[in-house]
Amino acid sequence: MSKTIKLTMAQAAIKYLMAQKTEINGEIKPLFTGVWAIFGHGNVAGIGEALYHVQDELPTYRAHNEQGMAHSAIAYAKTLNRQQMMACTASAGPGSTNMVTAAAVAHVNRLPVLFLPGDTFATRMPDPVLQQVENFHDHTLTSNDCFKPVSRFFDRITRPEQLLTSLPQAMRVLTDPVECGPVTLAMPQDVQTMAYDYPEHFFAEKIHRLRRQAPDDTELEQALALIKSAKKPLLIAGGGVHYSSALAELNNLATSLSIPVGETQAGKGALPWDHPQNMGSIGVTGAASTNTLAEESDLIIAVGTRLGDFASGSRAMINPDAKLLCLNVASFDTVKHYGQSLVGDAKLTLKLLADKLTDITPNNEWIAHANGLRNEWLSMVETATTDRGTQLPSDGEVVGAVNRAAGDNDIVVCAAGGLPGELQKLWQTRNDRGYHMEYGYSCMGYEIAGGLGTKMAKPESEVFVMVGDGSYLMLNSEIATSVMLGYKIIVVVLDNRGYGCIHRLQQFCGGPGFNNLLDDCLTVEGGAPKTDFAAHAAALGAQSEQVGNIAELEQALVRAKSAQCSYVISIDTDALADTKDGGAWWDVAVPEVSQREQVRSARAIYDSFKAKQQKNL
């Protein structure tokens, strides 16, 4: 008979997490490096008590906002290529539902986070308790059921012994390259405190290793035939290249065959920006060089990307006559856009392809054409990021200044608004993890909290958070957390007084300026106040300053890099200026009927692109 140990459900869950290890480059490390927690009546007595006794081995981090702390956990896992992760716990009710948006971010981006939300009493004895959502037709539902559509695995632990079967499944999902995503284990507050005699072997050390799936022989042969027959191939590098640690294999294949490479938001950095085969970003926020090649190519090799609408130009950009080869560890992603499936680990499969394609003779005309487009694009990037000395600089000019200040091992973090487009087009990185963009869910408010998580993962790097005034106002509290924990981030706030990106999109669709820029919103007679972001950041404990132009920004960045704590720099920018070069069409529906001539004209343009899109369906 196996030995047992009597623990509460919460104590057992934490003990199990601490027994999980991961192998990274031959070194065994903890799989869970910390727990983010905001305590309340739904978790303070159960999970809180369990975490207290192990805080020297498993740190507990206290945040200021539940969504923010979950964003930090997501950014941490992304920066470390999903090899280490964190858990997040919050109280029953609003504390837990605050994390639902972050769970959606993790789900869309296929990133591992363990959510441990407090839940209402499983016994129902004191019902209805404070913050309990009573469902009138199904008493088994609680507010934590909101996590179900945004979790890759969900369970509600209504008996302490249920951990014996639930936790191994949770670990399977969190560490599986195909299933990877957020896991939610809802924990009723009374069950957290219930005890059970757990078998000691349940807490034995478990070492997780990245599973590498070799491709099917038939699919590999079909892929080889496609590549051998192609005259004008283009490779698209997605986030899966990073998560598979396939950087060297991608470099080898692209270099040996002289295949031009375009990068998605998640794939950016897969090749250094100055690599001869790196054509720049692709899609709606892409480089003219890469997008032109996509329109002319006869074979698209998509590696580790789900080919979302921004990468594919809403299916209207890629040559409809081109073949599509989709290499992905997840078969779910390989069948999109009617592609030829090549299911397998990117690191293994790219090497197999390179080994079997040594007899290919590159198309010199295609190579020369690609090089010419690349040089033209790099010239445009230099122009767009150079200080023009205007009173209100463009986002591109600010990107240029921050990029010049960043070292080769530093990281830029962003998420939403117009900045992701400017950064994908213009930011140049040699570091494979030097570009951190949350653009699967494009969640406003991710930026500052994500910057904190990134810094925790890479404390040796300077982390530059670029954020618009709109996102800053949505979620800025983790500036105080970064100061409290001693993880310095540099935040550059681009203040265009409103949602400039959506204002520009509104006008592109024929609409008037309405409810996006503060000048176009319903306000008091004197207008909306001018937010003093520097003063606000100082109130949260950061060093800060307001600058008036790019030259002052560059000087402030020098001071920020030498500072010992988080540093916030605010600069006013032009809400109307953006880098129009390069980007492909994006399918944003325009009304068929309108009183405005501008809308009717925009609809005509929309219909023309829909016709191109139809050819790819």
Automatic annotation (TrEMBL):
UniProt keyword annotations, A-Z: Thiamine pyrophosphate
GO cellular component: acetolactate synthase complex
Protein name: 3D-(3,5/4)-trihydroxycyclohexane-1,2-dione acylhydrolase (Decyclizing)
GO BP annotations, alphabetical order: inositol catabolic process; isoleucine biosynthetic process; L-valine biosynthetic process
Domain spans labelled Thiamine pyrophosphate enzyme TPP-binding: 417-569
CDD domains listed in its UniProt record: TPP_PYR_POX_like (cd07035)
Coiled-coil zones: none
Thiamine pyrophosphate enzyme N-terminal TPP-binding domain location: 50-129
Protein family membership: Belongs to the TPP enzyme family.
Gene: iolD
GO MF, any single term: magnesium ion binding
A Pfam match: TPP_enzyme_N
Start and end residues of each Thiamine pyrophosphate enzyme central domain: 220-352
Organism from which the protein derives: Halioxenophilus aromaticivorans
InterPro entries, alphabetized: DHS-like_NAD/FAD-binding_dom (IPR029035), Myo_inos_IolD (IPR030817), THDP-binding (IPR029061), Thiamin_PyroP_enz_cen_dom (IPR012000), Thiamin_PyroP_enz_TPP-bd_dom (IPR012001), TPP-bd_CS (IPR000399), TPP_enz (IPR045229), TPP_enzyme_TPP-bd (IPR011766)
